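Worked problem 6 (solution included).
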Amino acid sequence: MGESEIRIEPKHAELVVKKKKQSGNFVIETKIRGTAHVTFTNIHENNSLLKPVSGDIAYIFNKYLEQKQKIGDSFDFVTVHDDIVFIKSKRAASSGME
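Solution. The predicted structure is:
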């Protein structure tokens, strides 16, 4: 028989799947915007406050991407438009049972 087999008994039917395969592709797009708040503390002095800092996420990502681009690194999956950071992850999903 093929990939599946059906057994029939009196007043009873059963489907037994011998092999199942599934595959597909998908893209996950994450959008980030807003302000990052970071607090620097001194771990040697009971985490005493050193300095609080805040910054726009899009600005931070832009500066990071600019630095990486200067040394030849590229992050094609990250873009910044206006005040929004877009991160795309492409996956080829497949699962199978034997």
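Discussion: The radius of gyration is 26 Å.
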